[in-house]
TrEMBL record, chains A, B, C:
UniProt keyword Transmembrane helix present: yes
InterPro entries from the UniProt entry: Gly_transporter
Annotated PANTHER family: INNER MEMBRANE PROTEIN, UPF0126 INNER MEMBRANE PROTEIN YADS-RELATED
Upper lineage: Bacteria, Bacillati, Actinomycetota, Actinomycetes, Pseudonocardiales
Keyword check for Nucleotidyltransferase: no
Main location group: membrane
Subcellular location: Cell membrane
Protein name: Putative membrane protein YeiH
Limits of the Glycine transporter domain: 10-84, 96-168
Recorded topology in the membrane: Multi-pass membrane protein
Organism whose genome encodes this protein: Actinomycetospora corticicola
Top-level taxon in the UniProt lineage: Bacteria
Length: 212, 212, 212
């Protein structure tokens, strides 16, 4: 496997790099130290893939044994720490990075799950988990509620991207060929949701306002 | 395995459904969005079983590959989001659901561990971890201290339920037959602890009150 | 394996015991109940080793199946809860325990990874993860930002300790023989960092102070 750069590996690498950049930007905003930024970047970048591989029994995870994965997880944090002032609007940069990364990881997660022969439903779920896993770990580590649970329209695009890959593979098309359109669809829906302020449905209103 | 509903699977399914309902109720109280409720319900419901299966090497976990498990983890959140106002006293409903779920998962965890041939002590510990795992994940995700660490008499009933199953299997009785009494004992002790306000022992008093 | 106390097992046991004591002290400071202290001690003690073993596929982890590991994880919490007032300066005791434990676990993690034949870079990373894993879990469970991400000079000594073991094993020396100097180096650097108030480099200054 190491040495050959397949679609799977390429998606993983770009996803990890973008996730690591997003994690490092968050660390900078939370005024963490150098090593903290590096670690938070790495955990954010490889967190989703680690979770997926542990759940699928693909251990030790490639993200820990393949130097390309580790480089993709560490290098962005080094760059971000020095050059983030150049990113004039960090907030929107984080949002965009998050959206691209959500798309890449959702399809990469679904693709790997499908390749390992799990049922389609499991492939979709692992796609979603891989997509949001790194961000959830990042948010737990900076001690805030995961944005995926509180922000609107976050899980839905990850679900769409994973579905594209899984459906393509179920109906006999190439899951790998479906990865790029799946990732683009996911990222586009996420970006549109942010720009347009789309809001997901809420649970039925609570009768007792005092519990808020 | 899929197709045959054994005691193990039945306990898992009911436990997951009750846990998912408890998680979704928590999400509603924290005013999360629809997808957030769904995800928090799922994670709370299958979290304990996922942790157990990963630690035992039973991957990919049945909770991710068996459609019955996923249905049990997702359906309650859908119902809770629409009908929770009917539950007039949400707080006590959560407490009761938590107690039933603690009982079911503790014995289910201990049972699976024993079936896989781990030492008795490990079986008890995995029973406790399975019982409290989903709730701990839920609390970490809504960014509060896990109630299992701060509320009185929570781990103790899980320990009792697991012990019943493990002891029954060690002395040659059927662990599965001991599951129902074990779960009932655990739930009963937990409910009694809540109703009677039982309080566990505290560490020796701290001499320096300023650190509180 | 059980019955023979190798360097690996001995390092693990001492590391778990010290980690469990550190976790229990934290629980006492957060005014947790008896069972909470016990659980937080156990999770802090075995958390790093659990994470390492799950990532390496060494399941079920020895920390859950070997009675010596569980004893090392549970006994210190029992002692700490009764005798912690005797530790007149709890804060500095926690810091010292943390430093010793960081050293022991970093080298133990690197050693086990190297023995299982992972690449050197992975060995170093797993050493760091094992070293800081338990503390991160502890901090997540008491709902605060992990000190490893916010305090200065924490990851760096873990990196040093792991490097000593991995380099020794790569150049053909005995990794086990390098464990003690590696652990001492790590602990010494951590203690010096605390005493001297060493501070790690920060990311480039953020131009917008309003986001802090």
């Amino acid at each position: 496997m190491p040495g050959t750069v397949t679609v799977q590996v390429l998606l993983d690498l770009i996803g990890i790099a973008v996730g690591a950049a997003a994690g490092a930007l968050t660390a900078v905003r939370f005024r963490m130290h150098y090593m903290g930024c590096l670690l938070l970047g790495l955990v954010t970048g490889i967190g989703g893939a680690l979770t997926r591989d542990v759940l699928l029994g693909a251990v030790p995870p490639a993200a820990l044994t393949d130097w390309r994965y580790l480089t993709a997880g560490l290098a962005p944090a080094l760059l971000v720490q020095h050059f983030h002032p150049l990113l004039s609007r960090v907030e929107s940069a984080i949002d965009l990075a998050d959206a691209v990364w959500l798309g890449l990881f959702s399809v990469a997660g679904a693709l790997k799950a499908v390749h390992l022969g799990v049922p389609p439903m499991t492939g979709v779920l692992l796609g979603v988990l891989t997509g949001i896993g790194g961000g959830v770990l990042r948010d737990v580590l900076v001690n805030r509620k995961p944005v995926v649970l509180t922000q609107e329209i976050y899980v839905f695009p990850a679900l769409l991207g994973s579905l594209v890959v899984v459906v393509a593979s179920v109906i006999g098309w190439s899951g790998a060929a479906a990865a790029v359109p799946g990732a683009v669809l996911c990222t586009a829906v996420r970006v549109l949701a942010i720009r347009r302020g789309w809001s997901g449905p809420m649970p039925v209103r609570h009768p007792d306002p005092s519990s808020g």
